Amino acid sequence: MKRPTILVLGAGYGGLTTVVNLQKLAGPNAADIILINKNDYHYESTWLHEASAGTLTPEQVRYDVKDVINSGKVKFVKATVDGIDVNTKKVATSAGEYTYDYLVIGLGFEGETFGIPGLDKYALSIANVNAARQIRDHIEYQFANWSTDDVQDDSRLTIVVGGAGFSGIEFLGELGNRVPELCKEYDVPKDKVRVVCVEAAPMVLPGFDPELVKYAVAQLESKGIEFSIGTPVVEATPEGVKIKTGEEEFEFIKAGTVVWAAGVRGNRLIESSGIENMRARVKVDKDMRAPGFPDVFIVGDCALMINEEINRPYPPTAQIAMQQAVTVAKNILALINGEGTSEFVPDLKGAVCSLGEHDAIGDVMGKKITGTKASIMKKVIDNRALYMIGGPLLVLKKGKFKL
Ligand code: FAD
């Protein structure tokens, strides 16, 4: 009998965790496992704010896919997925067309600009490791130009960060540490630099405990970061952003750098795949399958699951992506063995939001923590994600040990 083909798209937290679990659990001849990813490396999306600010290098946040897969069990293809058609079971890629018996879509997130004019064109987005490098280089370029320009335009040194959610705040935390270094490097007086966080919602870090949020805002403000809360960005231009400050009132913030970190959606390829979706996210069945397509599993940020306790979707996180992947791998092998699938049950351990290298806030297993303690916990979580995919060797190679 022909071995079934399991095609996994994306080597992010969801896709790669699915593959390492498949290679661990599947018998030697159980299936042909193919992993397709745009690059021959995996990047830690949860560290991209550090690469964007320049507090970690792009090389530090990525590792080779071949370091964690067993090439005797998994075929890795470096290719860009161009189209998915679940009705014909065909996946078009830059390396040719693939078909499958079981498909896992783990193609991750894309920035969501909510149709705000100019953002797509003039704002940068913490979307992947190369986009992070672009943000880092762009900020450095502004500092370098300011210090060599004959007529200095101080708005070059203004950085607007759109969004006071998780990734926006983590990026601001890194900027709080990086800006003084850049000032020193490029002979820029610190008081010439402005870092402004603009948020449409009336609060910072929705979902976090208010005491922890108060701590985070105070810490960031003490590093000179300004907050403009409840003031939506209504337009971005090459010169900066226009924000709405009142019923009929607007303000223009002239800025050399605008980073949009205010929303994510699933990968656009989902929208033309034939699977019903909302902003490229699929409301999956309890066993992580796409409704109506029993051979298609969705994992990570492309999947949408409702937390029935609060009747709201679970936030897209690496924590959930990796847990879903374990269920997906087990469910595919169960189907191959003619058994039934299991439901995915999230085991949420809390969240830790970094505020720069030595500071953080966290709500971990019901305990609220701040400062060094939370920062150490954040590094433990980062190292744990490495361990779950690549074991102790990967932790030794890429882990965070500096306290
Ligand atoms: P990803 O990890 O994004 O992987 C998607 C993969 O698909 C990538 O390898 C990509 O290259 C590949 N791909 C995409 N398109 C194609 C294509 N067309 N062809 C081939 N390959 C393709 N979550 C937490 O739990 N904790 C945190 O502290 C946290 N902090 C974050 C900080 C920042 C700055 C950001 C941006 C996110 C953070 N998140 C955090 C969220 C977390 O990173 C995502 O939820 C997680 O990455 C989703 O995993 P995924 O497997 O769905 O996608």
UniProtKB/TrEMBL annotation:
Alphabetized InterPro entries for the sequence: FAD/NAD-bd_sf, FAD/NAD-binding_dom, NADH-Q_oxidoreductase
Q: Which residues form a coiled coil?
A: none
Keyword Protein biosynthesis part of the UniProt annotation = no
Name the cofactor(s) required for activity, per the record: FAD
Extract one GO molecular function annotation from the record.
Answer: NAD(P)H dehydrogenase (quinone) activity
User: Residue limits of the FAD/NAD(P)-binding domain?
Assistant: 5-325
- In Swiss-Prot or TrEMBL terms, this protein is called NADH dehydrogenase FAD-containing subunit
Q: Which organism is it from?
A: Psychrobacillus insolitus
